Amino acid sequence: MTRDGIILEARGLTMRFGGLTAVKEFSAAFPRGSICGLIGPNGAGKTTCFNMITGFYRPTEGQVFLNGGPISGRPPYEVCRAGVARTFQNIRLFGNETVLQNVLIGGHLRQKTGWLAAVLCLPAHFREERAMRERAMELLDAVGLAHLAGEQASALPYGAQRRLEIARALATRPSFLLLDEPAAGMNPQETQELMQFIRNIREGFGLTVLLIEHDMKLVMNICEQIWVLDYGETIAQGEPAAIQSDPRVIEAYLGEECADA
Amino acid sequence: MHRSTAISLNVLAVAALGLFLWWAEGALDGYKIQILNLIAVNIILALSLNLIYGFTGLFSLGHAGFMAIGAYVCSILILSPAQKEMLFILGEALPLVQEAHAPFLVAVAAGGLAAALAGLLVGLPLLKLGDDYLGIATLGFAEIVRVIANNIPRVTNGALGFKGIPDYANLWWNYGWCVFTLFVVVRLLSSNTGNVFKAIRDDEIAAKAMGVNVFRHKLLSFTIGSFFAGVGGALLASLLTTIDPKMFLFTLTFNVLMIVVTGGLGSITGSVLAGVGITVLLEWLRFVENPVSLGGFELPGIPGMRMVIFSLALICIILFRREGLMGMREITWSGLGGLFARKGGR
Ligand SMILES: Nc1ncnc2c1ncn2[C@@H]1O[C@H](COP(=O)(O)OP(=O)(O)OP(=O)(O)O)[C@@H](O)[C@H]1O
Ligand SMILES: [Mg+2]
Fold first, then answer.
1. CATH class of A1-83+174-261
2. A166-187: per-residue pLDDT in tens?
3. How far is B294 from chain A (nearest CA, A)?
4. φ, ψ of residue B230 in degrees (nearest 5)
């Protein structure tokens, strides 16, 4: 794989909270246009990896490169501007706003006319906001929420909230999309649809997707590359078939089940 | 509803307001006109605080400070040089203060701009703080403004303040500024910038993840809010014709906060309705501070009683109807249209 084929690379990312090392020397290179998976038992450090990549945590050690340029150390909004969007494990919508407004807020960072243009009622402002509304409606259509555009976001059912969060992330026009447990709380039917949906947006928006997921069927079906974390350490990396038969991975997951029992 | 229809309705509403003011000017006595004036100023102040607190989620208690800045700047500009020569008895006014003179429109705008500048400078360090700290820090800011006003007699005439400020702030000026404030706030909040303000209020972390420069937008909202707080203070100075540092105590901020919370944090129409209602009630409640005779018994008036009643009312609102009169809802033309259509249909 050539360097050009890599959209985002993590090099030796380490995150320590006091004495706890949540993630230790996580290194990964994500091929452009791929769907990758990050898995591991509870508390393995998956979300912490997301937070380091998206600028919410400043890594104790290591760096992140987007298209070869360093992005670690920059605040989240700049990372998002550079083309990295995310969703959250515990859904974070703008609950008091409508479904449409949520998506419009996602589009804000690409907006050219600002608050002054709005107050002065400049025609360019109205034109741009109309175009943004149309684009937002297209995105809502893509996630099957167009008919709920006027609803308050917090009133949506769970599955719809997850899809809205993805639509909102897409509105920022990312090239790299991180999904933190997108299928959590979904029934098998919804999970099936979600899988197809992720494939579709990868094609339609020319995205690279990295997802965290506990649903192994989904992960093994959809991901081309998988990284496995356990207690912050990367214990395996490779294609789904190899991961499934990796003794260390099996042990990590079995160990968890034994501990749960 | 069609945009052009809504615009025509807005124009009609402003025209109706104009007609009402024209009628009021001729038909009502000075006391009632004064209440109408206070309503306009209170609506301006409530809208500015609602923008900061209700729509952007910044718990600011510094309104009295920004109002004081607006009031002093405006007063210095509209007092004539001759008046200022008479007023400054604690120490001669600084040459700049002595000479400064401007028409009322410019003076009010300058008061607003000075307050906005103060908001920007205060916001730069303070808006990085978490919510609770912001409340305390802005409260401290307002107190600092007051102490400074007390201690620069060559600019503010110290504790004596100003008397005989020209009473330019008539119905037309006050409602003119009120409609202007309403226009700016509505335009701002119905644009995507307004959506971003609300996003910060709802979930700051998600806003960051959506590429929103949270600090910049907080600063923007805070500065614009400060501008209108300064405008309100400027109008109030000319309306009351006297100002001094004691006028800008925390109770002033509290009054505005009460209107905003009663109307609904995050509701423009709520602030307008509560601005009218509470101003009227506060005046009407003055009777509890006067002596009354109840069936032969003479009850003495208790000064400050109406504020006690209002504080209790505010506590009740917070306990039983946290979202205020309107919550985050708005009364819109299409909403009203729907109401009438439904009634007509039945
Ligand atoms: N801000 C923080 N401060 C202190 N410890 C943290 C912080 N964030 C995460 N941790 C710790 O780091 C470890 C990894 O947490 P993380 O949320 O990344 O796990 P995860 O793999 O996403 O787990 P899950 O599957 O439950 O979501 C946990 O032990 C967690 O308690
Ligand atoms: Mg997690």
1. alpha beta
2. 999 999 999 999 999 999 888 8
3. 49
4. -65, -40
